[in-house]
Design a protein that fits this description.
By secondary structure, the chain is α/β, with parallel strands linked by helices. The chain has helices at about 10-20, 40-45, 65-70, 85-95, 110-120, 125-135, 150-160, 165-170, 175-190, 195-205, and strands at about 1-5, 25-35, 50-55, 75-80, 100-105, 125.
């Protein structure tokens, strides 16, 4: 059996996934956690083959923290199961070492197929994401601006869009406030805007946040 750990903020998600896979021939939900800080203990206490992780999980502030989990628990495959925009976050997740990305609008059947394939060593981006990435590659330069953004810049942009100040973002990401200001300037330049309001609006238009 493939032992799965679900890391999600919402009990209904835990219940729904566990109920769906209750009688599955290959998959069993062996553990559930409600915030990012519980993941290391969950992975130490049981042999978890696949971690199902929401990028908006409480306590998870950076893709680099996911990268750290993957490094420290190399035997556990990580699948992102999230509502965040696929064409922005799926490539970054795969680049960080995740083995798959499933959007929460997908059927649980697709999640099950992904779990099995990932456990067998495959890297999975579902067909919808692949099609979207192919379409995005054909878009004009202004529509592809987000592709110039680094993982860290996207993270900073998400926090700015949530209304957080530079000093707050610096504390969350454990970076210098001056560094956050530098990222903010880079974002303004790369997205071709001159102020924070336009920056946030551009990010929403491009589905970055």
């Amino acid at each position: 059996m493939i032992n799965v750990c679900i890391a999600d903020n919402f009990p209904v998600v835990h219940f729904g996934i566990k109920a769906y896979f209750k009688d599955h021939s290959e998959i069993t939900v062996a553990s559930n956690v409600g915030n990012f800080f519980m993941i290391p203990d969950a992975l130490r206490n049981k042999e978890i083959d696949v971690l199902i992780l929401d990028l908006e999980l409480d306590g998870l502030n950076s893709i680099y923290e996911v990268k750290s989990i993957i490094k420290n628990f190399p035997k556990t495959k990580v699948i992102i199961f999230s509502n965040l925009s696929e064409h922005i976050y799926a490539p970054n997740a795969i680049k960080a070492g995740c083995a798959g990305y499933v959007h929460k609008t997908s059927k649980l059947e697709n999640l099950g197929v992904t779990i099995v394939k990932v456990n067998n060593g495959q890297i999975i981006l579902n067909d919808d994401i692949k099609k979207k990435l192919a379409l995005i590659a054909k878009q004009n330069k202004s529509e592809r601006l987000y592709r110039k953004l680094s993982n860290r810049e996207i993270e900073v942009l998400r926090f700015l869009s949530d209304g957080k100040k530079n000093n707050e973002i610096a504390k969350i990401l454990t970076l210098n406030e001056k560094t956050i200001s530098t990222y903010k300037l880079r974002l303004l330049t790369k997205l071709n805007v001159t102020n924070l309001v336009d920056l946030v609006n551009k990010a929403k238009t491009l589905e970055i946040v």
